[in-house]
Specification:
Radius of gyration: 18 Å
Strand order of the largest sheet: 1-2-3-4-5-6-7-8
Structural class: mainly beta
Number of strands: 8
Helix content: 10-25%
Largest sheet: 8 strands, antiparallel, barrel
Number of helices: 1
Strand content: 35-45%
Distance between the termini: 41 Å
Shape: globular
Length: about 140
């Protein structure tokens, strides 16, 4: 019985620490002739959905919609994305396999007035425009 209680306490602590990362992250840029919107949703069940919208007045085509889905895991402050072959289809064309991002938030010990936005910063990806991308938590 004590092992069962210990297991549930360990499981709840893992779930609680993972809850901080779960949510919606977004990058939005509106300019005169360019509109860019990237949205990443990390679900509590370990799945993710990514949506990229681009509109360029002189682009061919002028609008692009790109999607991705798959699973994610957390190792401390590193988010590791993976996608199975079943996650990639005609609609979900982006492959986030081997993509990694760093979760950044203000430390609870930091009592200064500086503002640290909760965000994901991508540092590894096979998709060239994903590497270096910063998405802010909504």
């Amino acid at each position: 019985m004590k092992y069962l209680i210990s297991f549930f306490m360990l499981l709840s602590s893992v779930i609680i620490s993972a809850q901080d990362v779960v949510g919606k992250y977004q990058l939005k840029i509106d300019a005169t002739n360019v509109e860019l919107s990237r949205t990443l949703t990390l679900n509590a069940d370990g799945t993710f959905e990514f949506y990229n919208y681009e509109r360029h007045d002189i682009g061919i085509p002028p609008e692009k919609h790109l999607y991705a889905k798959g699973t994610w895991t957390s190792d401390k402050n590193v988010i590791i994305f993976s996608a199975e072959s079943s996650d990639i289809d005609d609609t979900h064309v982006l492959n986030f396999n081997t993509t990694r991002a760093r979760y950044k938030e203000k430390s609870l010990r930091d009592k200064s007035d500086r503002v640290v936005e909760t965000s994901l910063i991508f540092y590894q990806s096979e998709i060239f425009w994903v590497k270096g991308m910063k998405l802010l938590k909504q």
